[in-house]
Write a structure and sequence with these properties.
The chain is of the alpha/beta class and 421 residues long. It has twelve helices and 16 strands. It has two domains: 57-316, Type I PLP-dependent aspartate aminotransferase-like (Major domain) (Aspartate Aminotransferase, domain 2, 3-Layer(aba) Sandwich); 318-417, Aspartate Aminotransferase, domain 1 (Alpha-Beta Complex), CATH 3.90.1150.10. Helix 3 (79-91) packs across helix 9.
């Protein structure tokens, strides 16, 4: 193959070895040109839910291409988008009745932030501050970087980022500090919205917190008139054990962001769901109150058809049972490491499992990260640690035997690369 001209994401090309080419995906596997297979233990960056190339989703894409491609969505509509919006409103927590389409997790969060700020501007309230959680990650666009943790990821773009108020991560035993801090921030009436990753902070290190904290945060937003934005881009579609993580706290956010698993991971699509109150604040004979946001590929019919097929799979196939089984297997796998001297903080929420390797350096740029990636890839396993944080977030079709093999490899990695306390 000739020299590639592709610039890959989150890749330091000066340090990375030759990048493998994938020629086929199927189920829980990626296949290289030489026929060797790689077990996709992270659902190709958390997007693939039922498995690669689920036949029903592929068929929906094929069928739709015979009649539709992209249609301008300003002033026109189509049935895949209409049907999907009704389905999403039915699946989401109660009260999220309006669906705005975009094309990625980052854009769905940008939309949410603009909805929140537009809502208060249109009702004549001077609220313009956003509150975010420590260690959070919401995307790589300017707005989403602004509400994410300041780090090496966004240091170069600091001049463009807007300031936010931050509440501490609700670490075990320190949850009340988080609640007290948010309550103090919310008292001055300047906060437009609190944005959180419900139950699990993904790129921040697969940090997990209990549902009751989310429930209490919601109570504070209600008491202070602050909107709650739930970034369910990663946590949605069963990852935490329920369709949306918010369900476990028995709450409905004012705005909910979804992407990744929305199409089962087959094709890009995102949606931002909002309450009727937020929609009505933008519904006016005054054109200045229009919600001014779009992208060229808003509500792509082919992507919407793929998402509809995904919804039907949830309805017709035993997806909830598969998630429950995977969650139980993950819990059992994590238990293997409770007394392992090379690991600490083994944790699980639904189908997401994580543990920290004891090593000399920690954090995303820890040198151990690339070494671990190479170690697993040599064994035909796609595991992409967040520095010294190892996590498994596989598609729901993974078998118990495959998962056991992953945990065996993690155990071996600990013995090779880990340090004892």
């Amino acid at each position: 193959m000739s020299q590639s001209r592709v610039w890959h994401p989150f890749t330091q090309h000066a340090l990375e070895p030759a990048i493998p080419e994938i020629v086929l995906t199927e189920g829980a596997y990626l296949q290289r040109a030489d026929g060797s297979r790689i077990l996709d233990a992270i659902s190709s960056w958390w997007v693939v839910t039922h498995g690669h190339r689920h036949p029903r989703i592929m068929k929906a894409i094929e069928t739709t291409t015979s009649a539709l491609d992209q249609i301008i969505f300003a002033g026109f509509t189509h049935q895949p988008a209409e049907r999907l919006a009704r389905a999403l409103a039915g699946l989401a927590p109660p009260g999220l009745d309006w669906v705005f389409y975009s094309d990625s997790g980052s854009t769905s969060v940008e939309v949410a932030l603009k909805m929140a700020l537009g809502y208060f501007r249109n009702i004549g309230a001077s609220r313009s501050r956003i509150v975010a959680m420590e260690h959070s990650y919401h995307g790589d666009t300017i707005g989403t970087m602004s509400v994410g943790a300041r780090s090496v990821f966004n240091a170069a773009y600091e001049p463009f980022l807007f300031e936010v108020d931050t509440i501490p991560f609700p670490a075990a035993g320190r949850e009340q500090e988080t609640l007290d801090r948010f309550e103090a921030i919310s008292r001055d009436g300047r906060a437009a919205a609190l944005i959180v990753e419900p139950l699990v902070l993904g790129a921040g290190g697969m940090l997990m917190y209990p549902a009751w904290v989310l429930s209490e945060l919601k109570k504070i937003t209600e008491a202070s008139g602050t909107l709650l934005i739930a970034d369910e881009v990663m946590t949605g579609w069963g990852r935490t054990g329920t369709m949306f993580a918010c369900e476990q706290a028995s709450i409905s956010p004012d705005i909910l962001c979804t992407s990744k698993g929305l199409t089962g991971g087959a094709i890009p699509l995102a949606a931002t769901l909002a309450t009727d109150a937020i929609f009505q604040a933008h519904y006016s004979t005054d054109r200045k109150k229009t919600f001014f946001h779009s992208s060229s590929y808003t509500a792509n019919p082919i992507a919407c058809a793929a998402a509809l097929a995904n919804v039907e799979i949830w309805s017709d196939e035993p997806v909830a049972e598969r998630i429950a089984a995977l969650s139980a297997m993950q819990a059992a796998g994590v238990r293997r490491f409770h007394d392992n001297p090379y690991f600490t903080d083994s944790r699980v929420t639904g189908t997401i499992a994580a543990l920290d390797l004891r090593t000399g350096t920690v954090g995303y740029l820890a040198e151990i990260g690339p070494k671990l990636r190479a170690f697993f890839l040599e064994r035909g396993l796609l595991v992409r640690p967040l520095g010294n944080v190892l996590y498994l977030l596989p598609p729901y079709c993974i078998t118990g035997e495959e998962l056991d093999g992953l945990y065996d490899a993690i155990e071996e990695a600990g013995e090779r690369f880990g340090s004892r306390p």
